[in-house]
Amino acid sequence: MEIRMADLATGSAPAGGKVANTALFFRRWLANPLQMGSIIPSSRALCERVARNVERAPDEYVLELGAGTGVVSKALLDHGVPPEKLIVVEIVPDMAEHLRSVLPGVNVVCGDAFALKDTIPQEWQGRIGTAICGIPLVMLPFEQQKRFVDAVESVAPGKGFLLFTYCITSPLPYRKLGLTAKRLEWTPLNFPPASVWRYRPAG
Ligand SMILES: C[S@@+](CC[C@H](N)C(=O)[O-])C[C@H]1O[C@@H](n2cnc3c(N)ncnc32)[C@H](O)[C@@H]1O
Predict the structure, then answer these.
(1) Which residues form the pocket of ligand 1, taking CB atoms under 6 Å from any ligand atom?
(2) Staple 74 to which of 2, 16, 67, 198, CB 3.0 to 4.6 Å?
């Protein structure tokens, strides 16, 4: 793979300009490093790789969990997801407020991605084409990972989710969680280098 210096300069920088709000992101990392999982927002290269793997029928929603300051959300919009078909869930109120200000027309929900049945309105449930996870699941105990998998299944049955991660191998024990796993993407143009995985319910 050829890596150009210009790409290293731009592609690996946090995506999204005004959206990224690196200062807010860093402040939240200082406050709760485990919940954030990263010091800075994802790079443009990584956001692009997530967005290009979205599958969605015209009437379906995209559900982004752990949207942070909105860099992946911005890439999804740039890839043609209509704002009214994008649902972003973020647990930190300051960040949800930021998301509302930089993502006009997007459905921003301040709430817990591990309790999606209660977090998102019923009218969106069962109408989700792709769920995307930005939450650092790898650091959680198995029971919490299972809770997350079940939460996604409860609102997007059979769809599974995309997960981006800094791990080289699968960040989830997918067989034990009843999932299949496929690594779709890898990019060195992120800090740290990152992969995009797709998990689906097995069988
Ligand atoms: C690694 S950051 C990813 C942010 C952004 N998607 C990006 O790529 O730059 C993880 C985000 O997940 C949020 N988060 C953590 N636990 C969550 C939960 N249970 N429900 C919703 N959001 C959560 C954090 O507040 C943080 O904004």
Answers:
(1) 35-38, 41-42, 65-68, 71-72, 89-92, 95, 112-114, 134-136
(2) 16
Q: What proportions of the chain, in percent to the nearest 5, are helix, strand and coil?
A: 40, 20, 40
Q: Quick check: 11 and 45 in contact, CB under 8 A?
A: yes
Ligand 1 atom 24, closest CA: 36
Tokens, residue 132: 């995307």
> b/e map of 150-176 (b: 16 or more CB within 10 Å)?
ebbbebbeebbbbbbbeeeebbbebee
Number of domains in the chain: 1
Distance 74 CA to ligand 1 centre (A): 15
- Domain of residue 187: give its range: 5-201
72 alpha carbon, distance to own chain's centre: 7
> CATH number, domain at 164?
3.40.50.150
pLDDT at 107 over 60: yes
